[in-house]
């Protein structure tokens, strides 16, 4: 039996426009690599994504693929995320989850995702799963170290990095 690989990445943004600018070039690369993208968003980002896409330099094919990603808000209390994800798991493609919102929303979403992964572990053999948690800076308290420790890497405008490359003083205790 293969191994389930879940890579957890965190990012911090000051607004939904900042998040949109940060995620689009990275997302374009993920889509180029034929990864499935699943968004779980606290707020609707359709207008922001359209606005940023109209101003950035990407080829039309990449812009079209990004436009097809679901940028609508996901009410995690009402939407059956498990059903949506189980369908994707049967396709046996590598998955990239983009979770955007407040710390409370991200924590609740990750709780749900962990339950789904545990419940469906047999379907996840040899899959690579990446979860990118994008926190709104003005929402979380002073627990940035706690957030960093629960993630494998950090995401910013220039892409994915080791935590210590971005926060020079960061070291696990």
Characterise the protein shown here.
- The chain has 173 residues and is an alpha/beta fold.
- The chain has a single domain, classed as Rossmann fold.
- Helices cover 42% and strands 22% of the residues.
- It contains seven helices and six strands, in the order E-H-E-H-H-H-E-H-E-H-E-E-H.
- Strands 2-3-4-1-5-6 form a six-stranded mixed β-sheet.
- Strand 3 (95-101), helix 5 and strand 4 (128-136) form a beta-alpha-beta unit.
- The longest helix is centred in the N-terminal third of the chain and has 17 residues, at 16-32.
- 27% of the residues are buried.
In short:
This protein has 173 residues and is an alpha/beta fold. Helices cover 42% and strands 22% of the residues.
């Amino acid at each position: 039996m293969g191994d389930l690989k879940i890579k957890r990445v965190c990012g911090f943004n000051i607004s939904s426009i900042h998040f949109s600018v940060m995620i689009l070039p990275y997302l374009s690369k993920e889509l180029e690599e034929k990864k499935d993208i699943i968004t779980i968003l606290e707020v609707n980002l359709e207008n922001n994504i359209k606005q940023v896409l109209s101003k950035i330099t990407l080829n039309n094919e990449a812009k079209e693929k990004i436009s097809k990603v679901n940028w609508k808000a996901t009410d995690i209390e009402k939407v059956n995320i498990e059903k949506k994800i189980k369908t994707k798991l049967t396709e046996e493609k590598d998955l990239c989850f983009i979770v955007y919102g407040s710390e409370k929303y991200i924590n609740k979403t990750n709780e749900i995702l962990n339950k789904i992964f545990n419940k469906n572990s047999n379907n996840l053999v040899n899959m690579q799963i990446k979860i990118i948690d994008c926190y709104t800076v003005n929402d979380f308290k002073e627990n940035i170290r706690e957030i960093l420790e629960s993630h494998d890497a950090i995401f910013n405008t220039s892409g994915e990095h080791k935590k210590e490359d971005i926060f020079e003083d960061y070291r696990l205790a």
